[in-house]
Amino acid sequence: MKNKKIISGVTLAIILIGMLIYCYADDIYLALHPPKEEHVFKTKPDTMIPQLAQQLGLANTNQMDGLANQAVKVYNHQSQSKNGYFESYIEIPVSQQSRFVSMVFYQKNSKDYYEIPARKLSDTTYYIQTEFFSQRPKTKWRQGVLLSGMLMEYEYFPIQDHFKAKKYHQPKQLLYPSLQLAYPQPMHLIKEKRLKKIVRSERKSQKHEFMGHHLTDFSLADFEHQKQNSIESMYFDYTKIDDGKIQMDFNFTYPLLKKVSYQIAMFSQANGLDDVKNYPLTQTGPKHLSLYFTNHDHNRYETGYYTGYIQRNTPTQSQVSFISKQFFIPKYILKTISYKMKKIDGPRGIYALQLKLNKNERILQARFAVWTARGNQDDLQWYTVNSPNQQGIFEVMIDTRKVHFDGKEIDSLVDVEIDQTGTQRMGEMKDKVSKNRVAMYVNHRGNHQYAPENSLPAFKQTKYEAIETDIHLTADQQWVIMHDDSLDRTSNSRGKLGLFTYQQLLQFRLIGIGEQHYVYAELKIPTLVEFLAICQSKQKIPVIEIKDKEINEAAYQQLVQMVREAGFGLTARFISFHYEPLKVIKQIMPEAAVMYLDKDITVGNIKKAKHLGTRAGLNIKWQNLTYEKVAQAKAAGLQVGAWTVPASQYWQMEQMGVDYITTDD
Hints:
Immunoglobulin-like, elongated, eight-stranded mixed beta sheet, single chain, 3 domains
């Protein structure tokens, strides 16, 4: 009997002890695991706040730790590449320490919801890392933090913002770079029924959020009753941290007053309060504020650690609270993913230069330089693009007809201009492109879109394979360059060119487009020798139009000698509206290529051109050419040229089979 009483007493004692443990579990747990001194939030007077108030010009400012230091903070980092993880760091204030911490993820318009436990790193810091969302790309998720006690009592803190799931890669450990953490498997820390209730409540509140945002209003008198309104949770999205951008969301305990404004002061550790900037928060719900922060205005994209203070401003006072100094912005690193040349239309000589970077933030423009292997970069041409295409690629089109391309290597490089940083070289390339088009392109009187026609600068700026020019004889039988037989239109003098000697012509200067950009000496009337020298240096083909009809034999001999001595005996083209000069040139220089200029192709001029012998042809006004006429001339063994063709008609001329396209474009 005595033993039975002892057993009953022991049993009763065990039951009583169990009940006591059940009732005071949290107190026992905290007694056995006392929280250490809080290391995330400041609870003592903050000496920075008076300095901050003075710097920002805030009147009647006081410290209010209760505004933010009880908030649960979430730092999300969504990685940009494939095959990896989603991670979050969670900061729990000392006053809300719990046995378990987890994050809840759910979809607004779906029944899906999940809970993922967090691993404890310190008394105030927890961490989750999961590849769960990489299996559900392009889905939108809302989130919240769940604090659970030993007896499964819980408190839920919603996060206002949602994120879109991607395929992630292993992220950089921005906040705790030395950690090597295992991957936690998803599991439920509270009962399914409770979790479902939390999610259902959140979905319901979000449906009424818009209405509540517009119906909620308070007078200033109500502010005294709202003075305990504080931030329950903070959310910081680090997805674009490498670009100096952080999304911040704040969830408050009570609806916000419309006549109370909130701002965040941010400054870098490197520059202190000299760098402070104030950013207004935008209300995105009855109890929610948001900010998209960028370091653009902080000392030319200052990197490193940033400190943040939140302000609550009324017409009479400002309350300031420290929120965090863990905003770490890494150094901006720009890398080339690929740089290549892509064929767009081979027969027409159209190619695309494409530059893909690891990021396009801060890029003001990309500049591509293109030149051929011949000519020592004297044919270099720049192409500029200010923004990437829809695929995020900086792309420019190059037309090889507009450079002296001969089927050999094309060289290129690309520079990018970075906002407030400067220019950075991103790539260089050599590529060989086959010359598979038929037509040769000729600059009419040089590149006279940037310099006076038939001037030395116009010849030097030519981008096509050949340069067309016009020659006349002076009074002392010197070959000089000018289109008209009069000085009136293209020079600063008047009179017939043939009445002046070469020495007299040296006192005159050419006039026209862009003349103000060149020194006086560059605008002299050029000689044929000077024209041929430029063709030599730029490796261009000279196309020489003989303007005079009556020429003595000595002048012809001098002309042929100049061309041969310059090395253009087989490559130069002689053209003229007069038949006799072409006939004489072929007699003196049988290897020369000649073309008879006319307005249209006729049976008569086909016959005349054939009589010039081999390497002869017709050069016709482009508007009068047809497929049939070109075919008729080619059937007679003649080459066909077209003069003053606009760029819009290049393709049509090539399709007709035109051999030489002379253009002003």
